[in-house]
Structure formats: C-alpha cells, structure tokens
Amino acid sequence: MGSGGSVGKEAGPLKTLLRQHTQSALEQREFPIFTLTCFPPGFLVHVGGVVSTRSVKLLDRIHNPDEPETRDAWWEEIRQEIKSHAKALGCHAVVGYSESTSICEEVCILSASGTAAMLNPRFMREGCLDIGGSDHRLSRQPHPGMVGSERGEGEVSSTWLGFEDASPPSCGFVHIPYDEFNMPFPAQLTYCYHCRRQKVPDVLFTTIDLPAEAEVTGKGCLIQARLCRTKKKAQGEVNATSISNLLPFMEYELHTQLMNKLKLRSMNALFGLRIQISVGENMLLGLASATGVYLSALPAPGGIQIAGKTPSDLSYDQHISTIQKRIDDTIAKNKELYNIHPPECIEEVVGSPIPDRQRSSRLFRSTSESSDELSELDLSHGKKDAFVLEIDDTDAVEDIQSLLTDAPIPAGFYSCNTEVMPGIHNWTSGLQMFTSVRVYRLSNANLTNQGLNKIFTDLCENLLKSLYFKLRSMIPCCLCHLNFTVAVPEEELIQVAVTAVAMSFDKETQQAADRALTRGSGENEEQLQFSMELCGESTISNNQPTAKPSGVPESAMVHSSRAPSVDYGSFADRCSTWLELLRLKAHTIRRGSVKTSRRTQLLAHSVSSSERCSPLPEGRSRSLRSTRSLPCGAPVTVVKMTPLSFLPGTRIVKYLGIINMFFIRETTSLREEGGVSGFLHSFIAEVFAMVRAHVAALGGNALVSYSMKECVFMENPNKNQAQCLINVSGDAVIFIRESDQEAIPPLLTSRQTSGTGADGTT
Amino acid sequence: MSVELDVFVGNTTIMDEEVYQFWLDGYTVNDAVKVRMEGGVLEECEASAEVLRSDTMDQYRTFQMCERLLHSPAKLANQLLFQIPPHRQAMLIERYYTFDGVFVREVLGKKLSKGTKKDLDDVSAKTGVTLKSCRRQFDNFKRVFKVVEELKGPLVENIRQHFLLSDKLARDYAAIVFFANNRFETGKKKLHYLTFQDFAFCAGQLISNWTVGALDNMVEDMDVDLEKEFLQDLKELKILITDKDLLDQHKSLVCTALRGKTKAFNEMEANFKNLSRGLVNIAAKLTNTKDVRDFFIDLVEKFIEPCRSDKWTAGDMRLYLTHYTNSAHILDTFKHQVVWDRYMGVIKSCILKMCTLCRGQ
C-alpha cells in the first residue's frame, strides 16, 4: 500500500495544512498508534474507519524461539501495515488499537485492528504525547479562554483555530478524512446532518468508545456477528495456507452480518468493534462485537430489501415478501425499542459523489499486495437507498434466518460493549461485575458450516439470555463493557468467556437527565486524577516551604507512596487524612464562595503537603482512625470491581496502582470438587476474592478497568484432572460517594481551575 | 452438542431467595427447575428452560460452597470468598437455620446422636420433609447444641451471638437444646396434640425459672440443666400432701376462694386432693432424671386429663391454679413459699399453654 500516502495530496488546502503540522509530530514516531479508546474532546479531528490486519504464521519456523527477534519482526510488519492502511484512509494515526493472537499447535494468527484517525495537532506538539504534563492536561479543556491564550503563538495556531472552526466538535470526528474525489473505497457520502458543511459517510465503524461530544439519537445496543467455519485437519504450511484462505471470507461474512444487524436496528455507526478469530484444529471461529448507535450527524440508514434471484415461482415470491415483512416489522420495532426517532429533515440528497474516476482508484486498490486487508471497508453497498440482500442460495436464507432469530433483548435491559451506553446517563450506584464461562462440546463430528454457525450463535445467544435472566433483579439496567472471548481449547470444544458489568439506572429521571452535566462529571473525574498528579509535581517544584515542616524529605515521601513495601496502615491513614482535609478545605471554599483558581490551587498544594505529613498529631490521627472505613480488623472491606474506568455516582480520589495477577490452579480430584463447573466456579470466585484482598490491602475500595485477559481451561475427566490459568488486571482506587460531595470541591471549581489557571501559566 | 461447563461468578454473589429455599428444602436441580417453571418466572423474563436450569445449577453450586461457612455463621461476615451484602448474609443464615415445625416435633427431646440421625429417613417419610432437608436441620440442632454446651452465660444470648440468629429463632434453638439435653419425652401419643411452639414456650419458662442461670448469670451450663438445689428443695413441698392438716387447710382456703366463681366448683372440690397430689408428686420426683423426662407426660396425665374429663374451661384452670398457688402462702405451717412460687409459676403457665390447645380437641 505504498501509494497510500499519495491519497491525501489532492485534499483540500485546510486538510493539507493540518496534515503538514501534525505529520511532523506523528511521523517521527515509528508507529503513530494509540491503544486508548477514549479521548479528550477535540482530540479526534476525523475518524476514517476500522483498519485491521491478520497474519498467519508458523511458530515452528522460528529459528531461535527463545529470542524475541522473529516475533518482534512479525508485529512490526503488522504495525507497518496498519499504519499504511490508516494512510490510505487519509489518516495519520490509529486509535483504539489492539493486538491479539490465536494459537493452535504450531499455527498462529496474529491480528491487529484499530481506527484510522486524524488527531488534533494541538495535542501533537513536541513532547506532548510522550510527557503529557500540565500542558497536556490543559489542552484537554476546549475552553475558549485557553484558545485565546494560545492565539498569541503565531500563525500556526491560528490555522488550527481556523480548522477548529471548520468542524464543530460535536460532529467533526465523523467527517471524512479522505478525499471525496479519490476515495480509498466506494461509499455513499452526504453532507453532515449536523453542520451541513462537510461530507460524512453513510456508515461508520470504529474500535474506539463513543466520543463524549458525539450526538446520538436514541440508545445503542450490542451487535454481534458470529461465524464458524470448518477446515480440514492439516499440518504446517498446508494448514497455514488453508487458514489464510479462509480468513478473508470470514472477515467478509462477519462484516456483512454486522452491516445487516446494524441496518435491522436502524443504526448507522459501530463503536468498540472487536473482531476475534480463533483457530482450532478443525475449525475457525469468528466473533465480532460492537455497540451500534445512531449518530445524528450521519444519514439515516435505509431499510433492508430482500431480493430473490429467480422470481419465477409464486410461492417463492410469497416467501420473500413474508420475510420482507418480518424484516420491516423488526426494524420498526427496534426503532421503538432503541428510541430512534431522528428529526425528519429535508432530504438533501447529495447524489452519489462517486464519479467514474473512483472506479479506477478501486481497480488500483485491488492490486495492493495484501489480500485480507480492510475487508471491513472493501464493500460496495453504496449508491442504494436500501440495503439489498439477495437470496440466491441456501446460505443466504440461513443468514436471513439468523438475522431475524436474534432474540430480542428483554424489556428493561440494554447492552453494549463500550464503556457506557450512549443515551443512558443517570446511573445509580447499583453495580454487578461478573464473569461467565461456558464450554460446549460438539458431539457430532461431521457438522456442516451452517450447523456449526447455528450452534455457535445459539451458544452466544443463550449465554446472553442467561445473563439477562440472572441480572433481572437489577432492571432497569445496562450491561456495559460486555467482553466476549472465544477459544477452541480442544477439538470439538468451544469456550466462551464473558466479562461485563451490569449497572442499573434510574428510569424515572432518565428522560430529564441532563446529558451535558453527566458528561461534565465524567471529565471531571479525569480532571481530579490529573490535578492530583499535579499536586505531586508542584509540591516538589514550588511548594517546598509548606512541605518542609513535616520534617520529611520531599522526594522520600513521594517515593514511599509508590514503593511496593509501603506500610499500608500508615498509608491508609494518610489517605483518610487527605480526604478529611480535602473536605475541610472544600467547605471553607464553598462558604467563602471564592472559586478562583488560586484558591483551589492553594487547596491542592496544602492538601498534598499535608498528605505528606505522615506523623500526624496524636489526637487527630486517633479521631480519624475511628471514623474511617479502611480494613483494620473490622469486617471485610467491600471492594467494588468494574471493567469500566469509573464508578457511577462516585468520585475516584486516588489511584493506588495496577493490579496484574496470574493464577494457575490444578486439581486431581475433579469429581469431588463438583466437576469442571464446580472447579472453575470456585477458582474464579477465589480469583475475585484475591483481587479484592489486594485492593483492600492497598487501602482501596474498588478496582476499575478490570479485565480478565486470559482464561485457559483444560480438563482430563478420565484422569479426574483439570487445570486453569487466569490472568486478571485492573487499577486499584479509592473512591468516595458523590453524595458526600459537599465535602469535595464542586465540579465547576476544578474545571475553572484548569481553565483560568491556563491564563496565568501559559 | 452439550454444555460441558457453565459458570457465572459475580463480584457480588448473586443469590435468589426462591432458589435458596428450594435448595434448603432439598429439591434436586431438576425438581427446582420444574417448580420454577410452573411458578411463571419464564414468562416474566422471557427465558427458556435451559436458562433456568443453568441459573439453578449455578445457584446450587454457590450455596454448596457457602454451606461450610454457614456452619459457623460468624465466618460468613469475615470470609473473603463471597462478597455478600450484610442483609443478604442475615437472610442466608436465618433461612439456613430455620426448621420445619413438623420435623423438629419428631426429634424434640431425642438424643442428638448418630442413632437418631440414622432414623431420619423414617422421619422424612412420616413428615414429608425431604431427607436432605431433615439432615440439614438435624445437623443444625446438633451443631448449636455442641457449641452452646461449652459456653457460659445465657443460652438464648449465646445462640444468638454465635449463630447470628434472630431473637425468635435463637429462642427456638434454646428450646431444642434444652429439650435435647434433658431428654424430655415428647413423642408419646398423649402429647401429640402439642406443637413445637407449645413446647418451646414451656422450655422458655423452665429455662428462665428453673435453671441455675435463672438466679446467677455466669455459671457454666447454667441454662441447659435444671438447678439441682432447687430440685432438692422441691422435695420439701411434699408436706402439702403428706400433712393431713395442711392438705385440708389448703383445700378449704382454695374452695372458699373459688365458691360461686365457676360452674365446675363441685368437681374442683371433689378433685382437689387428687390434683394437688399429682402436682406435688411431680415436683417431688424431679430429682430423678427419669422423671424429669416424663415431666410433660405427667402434667397431662395428672392434671390436664382429669380436668378435661370434668369439662373445665381454660378460665376454670387459670382460676383454680391461681388460687391454688396463692392459698399456700396463707398456710402458717408451710415454710417453703419461695420454692413454691418458683415451682408453681412455671407449672401454671405450662399447663395453661398446654390446655388452651387441648380445648380445641
């Protein structure tokens, strides 16, 4: 894809300018790739779409398997390819990037995917990306005052401003980054439904979370595409080749399924797309999960139209029309369910902006070297109002059947695989993180692809149904961050593991919920985290005098809070002191109603300095000890766990570090422990318990960003044995309830701090 | 295709009270699923039988893992394996220790030994309570018995603290322990009409009045055994029936007080000596463990049955017993007033409890 970079050459002057500025910062990096999925407002200028690459490798071909060189070279290749895909989409960076592998015997599939994006150059200045100091923090705020402060910096910044003006933040990121007359793939473009100035695609797939500034109509939902393909058992090269040959078709099918299901729900964008392909001895499994939403800035999706190939038979026609009716009904029902009622605006059909020239570019593109690249985008479904499904063979009939047999989600439930569900904001504190694992044995060895598909789909559907049933007491609730992991641990076995969090929300006030407010609080959560880091820095730099009286050298103290051998008792003490002080200070600030940046910064300083005053006055520390709720011989601390980065209704006041643990459990008395289910059930319960204990030992009361990265289960029932390896990780934190909020500086104060503080510092 | 493995683990342990009850009642997973399906959870949540089965299996597994903790409930609050909110913990414990009235009636007063446990299948067949549930309940009795046996202090309070039970349930367990310890006979046909709650009431009376703990709070075993000294003292009451003068005096005092107040006066007068002998003899024999066991039988045979055949009402009995007790105080030569009150107070409330029920027969 060496010519990818040339795509941008004919782009508009604005984009060229932008590219030039950002290029320097990003291009210096070998891989302008971000694994983050969530960004500060304004960071994403445009999003191009999903880029992905897969590569099949033979592990026994590595000459020196103990050394990482070969593997590094493989990944480097893949990252280069991803980078060039992004370039082809007119983007200079990849966000929401992830890599994964699936290994079966000596064959290994390396997969990488991400979202091509154009990033805001303001964030890209020298060193910003690497250090992310206070400057970075400030630029997270799209505050007018701040922009003003930067205006003085010369021509360059005014260009950025000019660009900023050109695409309002709420829809800017959906505008196409590529040149509309030289598109890398065919797509139907329209003018943005929000600003009416820039072009947008009809559908957008991404791997990132829904940006906070995005405007969404209605609610979103989890969309999954599932696929199973049999393959012959083979060895080495032959095996690798047959897998390689299957992959593009699988990607294509998964994409088609996603597209169909998206249309069926009357939505036009996917976020958090994750396509997992697992290889087994005699089959390949593909599972794509994403959260579908209706982006207000994108055009409304057309319906799905069924077309028969041979409309000669009358009964056949009738059959088709019944299916068509069912589909139309489902779409209508889904519109109700997800509350998708976009404002009927005057249809400004731009017409197909794909001139003949485009065809040639397509041809050109097809000569590119890799065959399984960009299959998500390599589809021409444009130029048609409705999405036409042709029933030309039994496969297609199956597809449509499966499309329609996806069980509707029970009333009161929503689900998504992103951080939070678009359209739901008023979360209550009801929270239930869970992991569910299922292993199915395929008893019949001679299954067809369709048969396997059916089984796999049922497996996933039943699992979801079970989850809904189990969590019915939390209604109304949303399953967030639903993360499916599939594996083929053995021939004829399919393993599916799901980790997610169920969060209940308040239905009554849902309608009235103020979106902006909730968003604001989300930002401020990050804000607080940052200002705390700021504390540490500023204490060292300019708060020396205040800190001195504590009698402890600054650096040593800073160290001790991070060192692994911290005395957690005193650490906990310090935390609670810190909280206490924060509360006190906040009270004074409120009473005085002086919400200036200076005051708050002062607060930050004094808080941080007193946090370091570990030798507390005797009486004070005792009184604190009596009121705090940290583990101290008292009953077991409740530790909340969530795969999300936040806990609704709470404020994270301290990050205590990462928890990353591997557990291996083996049993030689499987039957006595209640069989495989009993074994795994108690193991997972114990893993949770150990994680909670670690968090509690650090003085924390929650684990955020929890993920179960690995769950490898093997059994040998004949020998009465089983083994399991689990890898979990997350961030230990201290949170406080927002209801205790009067104690904490109000949201706006801290926002203003950074905003107005910028005036003084820059 | 078959499900090889199916687990669901929540950070907060999910427990369905309905399923918990099925588990406690000893239903198999299949039976529980059947009952749940009939219960209409399915329509409510649009779930399939398969979903229900998976959920039930999961919960059963969880309960099984929790069971060992429930054996010493204090551990439930301090364990790390399951994160269960406190009110849920209380529910789990309370339900686990709740027993069936019909079942406990069968083993009440029996020795909580292996032999009794072996006969539980008969009890199960007789009461309709599943064997599994019978075993759990029996083991609960035994466990509580063993723990409090060694402890000082008030019985009910000990049970409540060690097993974190509600006051009501702790009292019931105190009764069970008390009955098991003293091996009161409750299985005779004549006592069949009495429910566990009747006996529990009587046990409460005996515990708070006749045991060592009734006087002194910090003696070992205090609430489980009847006070030896008191039982010895009861022998002195015999004077009420052996001394002819005293007996006559007592009778005339009671009769004077009762005259004209009840229709059954004639029967009372005629039966006075008989009844008095019965009650005092029960008191005098209580030093003998064998006779302690027959305490309730004796009450029925010696007092309640004669009264019943004379068609006394409950009011009659109350009246008679009140005057019978009080009149003894006026007897100048009777010197055992304290012991008499302590004895008659319990006897009166026990008889009244036992006869209010016999009325219905």
TrEMBL record, chain A:
GO terms for biological process: intracellular protein transmembrane transport; positive regulation of D-glucose transmembrane transport; positive regulation of protein targeting to membrane; positive regulation of vesicle fusion; protein localization to plasma membrane. It holds the Pfam family YbjQ_4. Residues 641-733 form the C2CD5 C-terminal domain. GO terms for molecular function: calcium ion binding; calcium-dependent phospholipid binding. GO terms for cellular component: plasma membrane. Residues 28-121, 197-296, 410-503 form the C2 domain. Residues 600-628 are annotated as: Disordered. This is C2 domain-containing protein 5-like isoform X6. It comes from Salvelinus namaycush. The lineage of its organism: Eukaryota, Metazoa, Chordata, Craniata, Vertebrata. The gene is LOC120053956.
UniProtKB/TrEMBL annotation, chain B:
It comes from the Eukaryota. Pfam families: FIBP. One of its GO terms (molecular function) is fibroblast growth factor binding. GO terms for biological process: platelet aggregation. One of its GO terms (cellular component) is nucleus. PANTHER family: ACIDIC FIBROBLAST GROWTH FACTOR INTRACELLULAR BINDING PROTEIN (PTHR13223), ACIDIC FIBROBLAST GROWTH FACTOR INTRACELLULAR-BINDING PROTEIN (PTHR13223:SF2). This is Acidic fibroblast growth factor intracellular-binding protein B-like isoform X1. The gene is LOC120062334.
